[in-house]
Amino acid sequence: MTESLHALSGAYVVDALDDTEREAFERHLPGCLDCQAEVASLREATSVMADAVALAPPESLRASILADISTVRPLPPETTSTTSSADVVPLHRGRKRFARALAAAAAILVVGGGAIVWHPWDQSSSTTQLSAADQVLAASDAKRYSIDFNDGSTATVVRSANEGKAVLLTQKMAAPPSGKGYELWLRDKTGAMKPAGMMTTAGDHKVLLEGDADKATGVGITIEPKEGSQAPTSKPIALFELGRTPA
Amino acid sequence: MNPDASDIPEGVVRLPTVSGAGGSASPSDLAELLKRSGRGDEAAFAELYDATSARAYGLAVRVVRNPNQAEEVMQEAFLELWRTASRFDSAKGSAVSWILTLVHRKSVDRIRSAEASTRRDTVWHHGSQDVEHDSTAEAAQASMEARRVRQALDSLTEVQREALELAYFKGYTHTEVATMLDLPVGTAKTRIRDGLIRLRDTMGVGQ
Q: Of B85, B89, B108, whose CA–CA distance to B38 is shortest?
C-alpha cells in the first residue's frame, strides 16, 4: 500500500489523482520525507513546463486583481510549530481548510483501543461552581479520545460514565461550509446515531453533548445543514470509538 | 511548429520575467516579494504579479482553454495567494512553483467540476482516440530558455511526454490518461512520474 502511494507522487504533482487517491496521498505525505522531497522537486519540473506556455494576461486582469486584494487582509503566518503536515501541501484546494480536515478524516479516523485515562486538573481548583461540561471534564473517571487533523485542528471527546455525559472539545476547527454545520452524534450499542448537538462556527469549542453518554459506544461528527438532521446524511468526518464503559 | 517571431502574440514578448535563469526576477526576489505580500505590501504583490502572471495565465488558459474562465481562475488563485502568502516556506520549494501549483489546482478543479458530467458521457475509443498534439514545445517561445525546455521535453519518451501533457495541460487523471493512451491501468502514473523526473534532471531544477 505504501509502495503504491509513493508511486503517486508524479500524478499528485500534476493534479492527476482522483479525490480518493489525493486524500490518501495527502495523508501519507506528512509522514514520508522521501515523498515530500520528491514532490517538492517534481513541482519545480512542472514550472518548467509552464514556462513554455506563458502568455501575457489582459491588462484589465491586473487592475481587477489588485483591486480585489486591497479589500482582503492576508492571513497571519502559521505560528504553531506542528510537524508541518499541512505545510507540506502548501496550497490548499479551493475548498480550504475544511476540505483538508475532511480529507484528513475521510477514511473515518477511528481512535480506539488505548484510551488514555485523563487526569483532570487538580480537584482543589474545582471548588467554584462548574458547568455541566466542566463537571464532565473534571470527573475522576473522565476519559479522553483525540483526533488530530492534518490542518492542525484537533477534536477531543471526553466522556465520564459517572456523569453520564460527554463533552466535545475542538481547537482551531475550520469553519463549516456555508449553510452547513458540524452535527454531533452519540452512537448507541445498536449502532444507531442519535443527534447530540450542533457546532456551526469555526474555532475552539467546548460542547456538552445532548443525551446520555454513559452507554454510548461512539461519538461521530458529520457535516449537516445548519439546522441539523435527525440522522446523519453524510459520512462522518470523525468517529470516536469510545469502547466499553466500565461495568 | 515554426515559432518565428510573427507567430508570437504581442503580449508574450514582454514577459521574459521569470523564465528561469534569464528572468529579471530571481527566485529569491520572488520569495522576498511573497514575504512582503504576506505583510500586506500591495506594491510587492503587484510586482509579484507582474513577474509571474504570464506563466500563471498561460497555464490557466492552457488547462481551462476559455480565456474568460482562465481570468476567473487567475483572480481566485491570486486572491488566495495574497491571503496565504505568509504561509509560503522557501525551504519547501520555489515561490514560482508554489504559485503555479495553486493556479494549476484551481484550473483543474474548474474543469473537473464543469466537465464532470460531460466527461462521463464521453466514449473513449480505444486506440483511435485522437490525442491532440499541441505540444508544449510547439508553443514555446524561441528563447534560450524555451529551447532548453523543448530539448528537455524532447528527451522524454513519446509516451512520457504525452502522459505528462495530458495530465498537466489537459487536466486528465492518470487513469483517464492510461485509457487515452491505451496503457495498462496503473502505468500512466509511472510514466508521468518518470517524465517529471527526467525533466527535472535535464533542466537541473529542484536538485
A: B85
B17 vs A49: CA distance, rounded Å: 15
A105 falls within a domain: no
CA A171 to chain centre: 10
Nearest to A11 among B94, B102, B174 (CB): B174
Query: What is the total count of domains within chain A?
Result: 2
The Cα of A26 is separated from the nearest Cα of chain B by a number of Å equal to 14
Same domain, A48 and A117: no
ipTM above 0.90, yes or no: no
Please indicate whether, in this complex, the C-beta atoms of A57 and B74 are within 8 angstroms of each other.
yes
Segments of chain A with pLDDT less than 50? 1, 82-129, 245-247
Q: What is the mean pLDDT of chain A?
A: 76
Q: How far is A225 from chain B (nearest CA, A)?
A: 22
Please count the structural domains in chain B: 2
Range of the domain at A23: 2-91
| Chain A residue nearest residue B37, CA to CA | A74
Q: Measure B128 CA to nearest chain A CA, in Å.
A: 22
Looking at the structure, tell me whether residues A136 and A193 fall in a common domain: yes
Beta strand A143-148 with A116-117 is antiparallel
- In a domain, residue A229? The reply is yes
In a domain, B186, yes or no: yes
Instruction: Give B10: exposed, middle or buried? Use CB within 10 Å, 0-12, 13-18, 19+.
Output: exposed
Q: Is there a contact between A15 and B103 (Cβ–Cβ < 8 Å)?
A: no
> Looking at the domain assignment, is residue B3 inside a domain?
no
A14/B62 CB distance under 8 A: no
Determine the residue of chain A that is closest to B45 in CA distance.
A66
The SS3 call for residue A178 is coil
pLDDT in tens, B60-103: 999 999 999 999 999 999 999 999 999 998 888 899 999 999 99
- Asked whether residue A81 falls in the same domain as residue A129, the answer is no
| Domain region containing B62 | 10-122
